[in-house]
Amino acid sequence: MSTTDTGLATGDAVASTTDLTVTGMTCAACVSRVEKRLARLDGVTATVNLATSTAHVVHPASVSADELTAVVEAAGYGASVRAPSSGPGPEQTRGVQRGAHVRVLVVAVLALPVLALSMVPSWQFPSWQWLCFALAVPVATWGAWPFHVRAVRGLRHATATMDTLVSLGVTASFGWSCCALWFGGAGDSGYRMPFTLLPMAGDGTHVYLEGAVSVPLAVLAGRLLEDRARRGTGAALRALARLTVSEVAVRGADGTERVVPLGELVPGDRFAVRPGERVATDGVVVEGSSALDVSLVTGESRPVEVGPGAAAVGGAVNAGGLLLVRATAVGADTQLARISRMVADAQAGKARAQRLADAVAGVFVPTVLALAVTVLGFWLGAGAAPGAAVTSAVAVLVVACPCALGLATPTALLAATGRGARLGVLVSGAQALESLRDVDTVVLDKTGTLTSGHMSVTAVTARAGGIGPVAALRLAGAVEQGSEHPLGRALAAHARQHPGLGVLPAVEGFRATAGAGVRGTVEGHRVEVGAPAGGLPGQLATAVGESEGAGHTCVQVAVDGVPEAVVAFGDVLRPGAYRAVDHLRRLGVRPVLATGDRAAPAQAVADALGIPRVHAGLSPAGKATLVAELRSQGRRVAVLGDGVNDAAALAAADLGIAMGSGTDAAAAAADVTLVRGDIQAVADAVRLARRTMATIRANLSWAFAYNLVTLPLAATGWLDPMLAAVAMSASSLLVVANSLRLRTWDPAPARAGRTRRPGGRRSLTPPGA
Predict the structure, then answer these.
(1) DSSP state letters, 467-498
(2) Catalytic-role residue among 282, 445, 571, 607
(3) How far apart are CA 115 and CA 700, in angstroms?
(4) What is the pLDDT of residues 105-124, one digit of tens each?
(5) N or C, which terminus of the chain has less Cβ within 10 Å?
(6) Catalytic status, residue 445
């Protein structure tokens, strides 16, 4: 449903949200008008996006969706409730595009001869002006009909938009030309008209048919190109939508398969995924092994190997063998659906600068109309020819461009959030991007964020003259195969994965004693694995001391009663953790480590990553207090975490960043979510935010500067209506084109260069056996 309860109470009313599709908006003035009309309803706030033609409305439950659409329609625009995945279908989109293409093509065929004859006096033959008039009539009426219709609709609702300016400009140019042809002597068969890009002084016998045809041609062509570019900025969201499948092969308890629509799939169903097919929904692999291409979902370029018990994300492509997957989430609960929702919500946001631009756009069109009337009166009062006065007024109407103001932020957000989604970075909106740009301190959680979050073998040290580390690992791994303890499972897994060991031998007489360890007989040897005992040989005692100093856990491996080796366990760093922290430092962001773990392992991680400030043993409330202290010092703080214990700190920070592999509580409290496990994405997110906000600033600067420069030129008679129309269309295209560059932004060049580990830093993962 497109209307949902947010669960937030305002007084006695429960707030709901409704997404509307709004048609007929052409500029930032339209955006401002729709938002103001909706805000007149008690308790209603709205965010309208020109680039996506949508309105996100938060309203009391007592206000129905029908009331919201009625308000928008009363403002002169079309409105309908938007389904969560709605949007024009391919056929509808192609139909609209074909209609726009046909109109532009016909207008061009009719307008170009008028422009040529008006601009090249030597081509003007007897009664040429009447041919131009005949060609200009369909352009000024049928070609400009969309502008006239929307202008009249706005007039009925006492509003003025960009279409009002264009319609008035075309009507004034065409009306003046008619007067000149019938009553000003310009209709004589021998009439010749010189051409200049500046308004002409004289006796008023000039015709301005080129203005009447060039304005519709330039604006229609500009909007066609602009619409195509705007659709390009939202390509990432449409690509996510294409990752879903329409049908799925469900396997029953008897082993038979039947193909059903995706909507009939329920959690617990088992479905087959053949090579080359997409995984229909989130699930767990029951049978088979393969490699899944998850690049379009998480941004991770390397295929992920999966087997029984492994998670399979919906939308991933099966690049290997046959898989049988048990569905764990369907519909709106899947990871892909959550990603799509976050991207769509982010694209509906506005930066602070854009809200200022919208406020300016709200009074922009009435101001331009008043300016055009003033220019007309001034030139007539100053004794200028009526034709020159009308031309200057028309140029003012045509050159004014609130479109660029309205497109400056949404097009950049569409492109940036789409690009971020492809890189595995989901941003909640413009406010999050602004905060991310200004962050100067990042508080990093340790377990599950900088580290993998699970114990693994970090070192195997054998006594001198003994059986050696490989043999000790083989025997210990064999006896631990029957263990349920996390350290035992980690040791057995490490042994199985060790090159050259192959299949581990069987264990006999296995016995596990709580708090003491495990024992068993392997190939005739009595093997015991447990806590280190006193009196270890010097080399093994040293290894135990070093491991405990680094915050690691050790076990002793004894064979036939003789201590042969010590195995150290620790939470290893995530791949690329050091590089990510180093890149944050290069960006001027100060890393701070905050963890609930003990001081020794926390300091070991900090030393390995070069983090100077460490806070260990913190409770969830302690982490939130630390964030508050940093903010009180004037720092802009971001928190990166993945667990329930990080949720309070994430919510207390200027910006919360959650690992996508973490808990729902962390993700709900965060402003940015990293879909893939690579924390290098944090630095990528900072760079993307800074590039996006720089693009938005450039867009808005251009939009304001353009109007500040061109309006005085038009008012003082230095800008012809034809050039004004071209300039107006070009300004919008330039804004959209600048935003489109974000679609191809690549973080790789910024990461380039060898990252050297400072001398003296200890690695968390010393080489093992």
Answers:
(1) S-HHHHHHHHHHHGGG--SHHHHHHHHHHHHS
(2) 445
(3) 33
(4) 999 999 899 888 887 888 98
(5) N
(6) yes
